[in-house]
């Protein structure tokens, strides 16, 4: 809310006082006063009402009144209510009141609630433990990490899963060791959530444990482990992920290619080149993307080979990847791709050839100047501008007569710049 | 996504059931005549259809008035229920019409419990000074159940002009009325009600009133 007020002022301040601006200024002032008003309103919970609610929570003889009071205190989100709610959580005779008190403490999100919530993790009632662990996650404070780590030993899978999720939200490095242990839980959902949490925390300390989990028998777990390794972006995961490129499941192989593209480590080039021959087109496509991210010239020949791929998506990604890589000469297949049936491939190929500035591409680029697509003609002109070649000069002069003014302008600019 | 679909299917099934139970001999000709009728006639027909409805069906009718099923809900009602559908569609969307107020106001003391509830709910949704005045009048002068229904209607009106009268009604002799009043004050969320609600939470002898007062205080922040 405070940010909104500042932003609103920043918008209003430099505005000229012209007549036409008046309504806008008025609207902005309204916005500011609303923002300020609601901020004050949300801070000022009536003390007498708060005291009466806390009294009702602790003293009223009717459990439904105590529960309604707990609920109201949760709605008010005032941290002054934490001790009263904590007391109700610890000693109310009715379980439903204790459950609502735990909920309210989660809503208030005050770190002070951790000390009240933690003892309830040992309660016999599984519903209460679930609620408490949820509340600890809401608070998102590093002080809750220790308590949540303890909850990872709970006999109820839902409590464990909620605790892991909370640890992923808090993103504290202190949670890595307990989460690595949870990665070996009997319940696949728990292992999957643990992998997710480790991916959120992004600590490289988790890499060896995650790599071990790459041969989990559950596909969803493997998928999440691969995702986490892609998030952490550590080079020490490459060997393991290279193995995952040979996983039985297509989704895992594709995600592994993605992760290797994120990590951008050159030792991944050979396994990814192999993945360009995967039986599944989406895996080949992702491998081409990853090689484009890594930008290593060793991949050029394999990517050039992928330009003959039967699948359009693979050809598009391969030609894009070749444009990313810093090459001395254009592979013949790339020059061939300038005549591809697909417009996107032709555009990307023209762009890539321009990056490489290889004179052998001039005749094909010249042919593109009679392409129906004006954007391709523009890209071709810009590519020819990069190539020092007498042939290129002539073609650019001819492009000065193109029907599209943008192409003519590009040609004029290219000639002015280079010759 | 799948949950939504199930919810829609359940709502459609309820709607068909509601239509079948409430229908009672409506004809297409009758529906034609209704299209040109005045708002007060519409209101009278809605009340008529509500009479004799069991508690479950009445709840569905009230929810359709609150439009809780979402727009397009009545599309699922079969053709045979055209009149029913139109009546409840009208009840859902025509919330500005003051012409219906006298009929609905009378229906607040109808002998049928569902007719009374439907009337109070409709009055709550008609955002017009005359609807507000009718509800305030009944809050002051009706029998126990009428005062309770009037309080609920005022909660739906959600109009700050009702806060003073509601605060006075927080000391009504009937606990059911006081509980409804506390609920209504929570809906209106006016901070001037905090003191009265705080007192009710501390001192009211009835636990339902204290519970509604606590809830209301949580709403008003």
Describe the structure.
Chain A is mainly α and 419 residues long. The longest helix of chain A is centred in the first third of the chain and has 22 residues. The N terminus of chain A is likely disordered. By secondary structure, chain B is an all-alpha fold. In chain B, 71% of the residues lie in helices and 0% in strands. Chain B is built from 13 helices and no strands. In chain B, helix 4 packs parallel to helix 7, helix 9 packs parallel to helix 11 and helix 10 runs antiparallel to helix 11. In chain B, 47% of the residues are buried. The chains are: A mainly alpha (419), B mainly alpha (221). The interface between A and B is medium-sized, with 25 and 20 residues.
- How would you name the oligomeric state of the polypeptide chains in this document? heterodimer
CATH topology of one domain in chain A: Leucine-rich Repeat Variant
User: Cα-atom Rg of chain A, whole angstroms?
Assistant: 31 Å
Low-confidence stretches of chain B: 16-36
In CATH, what is the homologous superfamily of one domain in chain A? Leucine-rich Repeat Variant
% residues in beta strands of chain A:
under 5%
| Rg calculated over all Cα atoms of chain B | 18 Å
The name of the CATH architecture of one domain in chain A is Alpha Horseshoe
Structural class label of chain B: mainly alpha
What's the story with the biggest beta sheet of chain A?
none
Number of strands of chain B: 0
**What are the segments of chain A in which pLDDT stays under 50 over at least 5 consecutive residues?**
1-41
Helices and strands of chain A: which structural class? mainly alpha
Question: What pattern of helices and strands is seen along the backbone of chain A?
Answer: HHHHHHHHHHHHHHHHHHHHHHHHHH
End-to-end CA span of chain A: 58 Å
Instruction: Count helical runs of chain A.
Output: 26
Please tell me the overall pLDDT of chain A: 88
Structurally, the number of domains of chain B stands at 2
Please bin the fraction of helical residues of chain A: 55-70%
Helix content of chain B: over 70%
């Amino acid at each position: 809310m405070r940010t909104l007020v500042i932003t609103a002022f920043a918008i209003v301040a430099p505005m000229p006082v012209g007549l036409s601006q008046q309504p806008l200024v008025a609207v902005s002032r309204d916005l500011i006063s609303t923002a300020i008003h609601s901020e004050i309103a949300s801070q000022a919970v009536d003390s007498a009402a708060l005291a009466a609610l806390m009294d009702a929570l602790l003293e009223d003889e009717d459990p439904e009144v105590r529960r309604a009071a707990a609920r109201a205190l949760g709605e008010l989100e005032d941290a002054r209510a934490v001790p009263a709610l904590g007391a109700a959580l610890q000693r109310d005779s009715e379980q439903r009141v204790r459950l609502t008190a735990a909920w309210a403490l989660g809503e208030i999100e005050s770190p002070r609630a951790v000390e009240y919530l933690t003892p309830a993790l040992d309660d016999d009632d599984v519903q209460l433990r679930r609620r408490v662990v949820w509340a600890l996650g809401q608070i998102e404070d590093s002080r809750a990490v220790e308590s949540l780590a303890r909850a990872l030993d709970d006999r109820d899978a839902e409590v464990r899963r909620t605790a892991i999720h909370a640890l992923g939200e808090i993103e504290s490095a202190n949670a890595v060791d307990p989460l690595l242990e949870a990665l070996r839980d009997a319940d696949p959902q728990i292992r999957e959530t643990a992998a997710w949490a480790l991916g959120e925390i992004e600590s490289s300390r988790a890499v060896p444990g995650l790599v071990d989990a790459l041969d989990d028998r559950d596909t969803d777990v493997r998928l999440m482990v691969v995702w986490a390794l892609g998030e952490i972006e550590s080079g020490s995961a490459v060997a393991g992920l290279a193995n995952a490129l040979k996983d039985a499941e297509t989704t895992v192989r594709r995600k592994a290619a993605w992760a290797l593209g994120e990590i951008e480590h050159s030792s991944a080039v050979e396994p990814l080149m192999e993945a360009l021959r995967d039986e599944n087109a989406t895996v080949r496509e992702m491998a081409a993307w990853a090689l484009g991210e890594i930008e290593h010239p060793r991949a050029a020949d394999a990517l050039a080979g992928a330009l003959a791929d039967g699948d359009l998506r693979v050809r598009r990604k391969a030609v894009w990847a070749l444009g990313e890589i810093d090459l001395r000469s254009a592979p013949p297949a790339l020059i061939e791709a300038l005549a591809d049936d697909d417009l996107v491939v032709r555009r990307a190929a023209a762009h890539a050839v321009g990056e490489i500035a290889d004179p052998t591409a001039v005749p094909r680029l010249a042919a593109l100047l009679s392409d129906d697509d004006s954007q391709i003609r523009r890209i071709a002109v810009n590519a020819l501008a990069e190539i020092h070649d007498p042939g290129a000069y002539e073609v650019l002069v001819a492009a000065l007569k193109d029907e599209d003014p943008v192409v003519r302008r590009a040609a004029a600019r290219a000639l002015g710049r280079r010759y | 996504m799948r949950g939504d679909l199930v919810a829609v299917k359940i709502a459609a099934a309820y709607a068909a059931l509601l239509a079948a139970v409430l229908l009672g001999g409506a004809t297409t000709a009758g529906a034609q005549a209704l299209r040109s009728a005045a708002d007060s006639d519409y209101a009278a027909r809605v009340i008529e259809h509500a009479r004799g409805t069991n508690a479950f069906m009445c709840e569905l009718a009230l929810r359709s008035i609150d439009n809780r099923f979402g727009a397009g809900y009545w599309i699922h009602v079969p053709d045979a229920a055209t009149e029913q559908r139109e009546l409840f569609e009208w009840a859902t969307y025509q919330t500005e019409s003051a012409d219906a107020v006298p009929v609905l106001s009378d229906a607040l003391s109808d002998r049928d419990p569902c007719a009374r509830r439907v009337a109070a709910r409709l009055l709550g949704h008609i955002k017009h000074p005359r609807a507000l005045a009718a509800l305030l009048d009944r809050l002051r002068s009706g029998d126990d159940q009428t005062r309770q229904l009037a309080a609920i209607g005022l909660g739906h009106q959600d109009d700050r002009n009702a806060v003073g009268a509601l605060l006075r009604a927080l000391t009504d002799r009937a606990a059911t009325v006081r509980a409804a009043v506390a609920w209504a004050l929570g809906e209106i969320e006016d901070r001037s009600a905090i003191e009265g609600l705080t007192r009710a939470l501390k001192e009211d002898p009835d636990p339902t009133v204290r519970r509604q007062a606590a809830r209301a205080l949580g709403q008003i922040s």
